Amino acid sequence: MVFVLYVDMDYFFAACEEVRHPELKGKPLVVGTAPVNEKFRGVVQTANYEARKFGIHSGMPSIKALDLCKELNYLHSDEEHYESVSAEIIKVLRSYGKPLEVISVDEAAMDITGLTDEEALELSRDIKSRIKKSFGLTCTIGISNGKAFAKMASDKAKPDGLMLVKAQELRSFLDSCSLDKLPGVGSKTHEKLKELGISSISELSKSDPMVLIDAFGSAGKELYMLANGIDESKIVESSEILSIGREVTLKSPATSVDEVTPVLKGLIDEVMKEIEKNGVLFRNVGAKVRYTDFSISAKSYSLHNYSDSREEIEKRAAPMLKELLKAGAARKIGVRVSRLIKTKGQKKLF
Ligand code: TTP
Ligand code: MG
Ligand code: MG
């Protein structure tokens, strides 16, 4: 397995806002997709830890968040800003010269195979202090053999934490985490596992792999392996270009995906041209809408594997746009692919 250092920024969007609005530091703050009390039902993208004390979390309707905390501070999402901060952080991480896989806007996995535990901890402390010094932001780092376990360690040690899970500690670490913390166990899988009588990682590790494969296909085998402390995934070095996206203002506001189909196809054509020009594969497809009231909402979909297929973008973007258009009329739509890797010399990895 690969020795992995996994970085996840703490309450990232809200933390970026605290840097720009120091007067909000220490006060409950959420960043959301639409202004509170506007006609579009916005959701919380993230909450700082002060707001989380009130039970506020990502994905919650903003109106509900305000209900839970009367003195809540609310800021409209500025994803361009968070992405530019993210790009700067990635530059810092790349400067260590190790293979780096950018997983999302606030997460990256570094292949540190060959380092001792002590060296890994020292490197992590250096990364944490550089990020703090350069951007005023905290992150949490997890270290383990296997990307999935390093990520779980970073989740466990939040916020502003650092956790190394040694090989001999992996079993007890896994048993200390709830089942939904295992990468790949989303809410649907969690439900299905419960139906199979599996409600902990320990139970999953001792379950019958054939039953899991029956229920989940190859993902079932992967879950079984992860629960048993085996993660064979590699660190796939990300491309220098972090994302490719196109957006366009519509001639007249649209309320259904059918109305925007030709425009969407045009956007995907342009994205595809850039994909080919740069020789990259993508693993994430995103769709974005700017409504007539200027609020913005976005969705993204993570693929199981890297792809360069036009159909894949279309298949994922259209339903996301459909969903987004339920909330109101769009003035602008956008499509984007991210988690990019270079095709040259890397295709053999899949
Ligand atoms: P996360 O890393 O999941 O969360 P976080 O950084 O806000 O908090 P934590 O300290 O627990 O890591 O997500 C990173 C950013 O992605 C987050 O700041 C906002 C955005 N995001 C959404 O827009 N919608 C969502 O549902 C989630 C989970 C995150
Ligand atoms: Mg985070
Ligand atoms: Mg994250």
CATH architecture of the largest domain: 2-Layer Sandwich
Low-confidence stretches: 346-350
Describe the biggest sheet? 5 strands, mixed
- Helicity, in percent? 40-55%
Total of DSSP H or I helical runs spanning 4+ residues:
13
Over the alpha carbons, how many angstroms does the gyration radius reach? 21 Å
For the largest sheet, list the strands in their spatial order: 5-6-1-7-8
Q: What is bound: which ligands?
A: thymidine-5'-triphosphate, magnesium ion
Structural class: alpha+beta
What is the residue-averaged pLDDT? 94
**Roughly how many Å apart are the termini?**
16 Å
CATH topology name of the largest domain, in short, is Alpha-Beta Plaits
Strand content: 15-25%
Count of folded domains:
3
Q: Count the E strands.
A: 13
List descriptors.
alpha+beta, 5-stranded mixed sheet, 25% strand, DNA polymerase, domain 1, Alpha-Beta Plaits, 41% helix, binds magnesium ion, Dna Ligase, domain 1, 350 residues, 3 domains
Structure description:
The chain has 350 residues and is of the alpha+beta class. The protein has three domains: 1-174, Reverse transcriptase/Diguanylate cyclase domain (Alpha-Beta Plaits, 2-Layer Sandwich), CATH 3.30.70; 178-227, 5' to 3' exonuclease, C-terminal subdomain (DNA polymerase, domain 1), CATH 1.10.150; 243-342, Dna Ligase, domain 1, CATH 3.30.1490. Helix content is 41%, strand content 25%. The chain is built from 13 helices and 13 strands. It has helices at 12-20, 49-52, 62-68, 79-94, 117-135, 147-156, 170-176, 187-195, 201-205, 209-216, 218-227, 257-278, 310-325; strands at 3-9, 29-32, 44-47, 73-76, 100-104, 107-111, 139-145, 162-164, 243-254, 280-291, 296-307, 330-338, 341-342. The strands form three sheets. A five-stranded mixed sheet has the order 5-6-1-7-8. Strands 9, 10, 11, 12 and 13 form a five-stranded antiparallel sheet that branches. Helix 4 packs across helix 5 (117-135) and helix 12 (257-278) packs antiparallel against helix 13. The longest helix has 22 residues, at 257-278. Residues 346-350 have low confidence and may be disordered. The site of one magnesium ion has 4 residues, from loops.
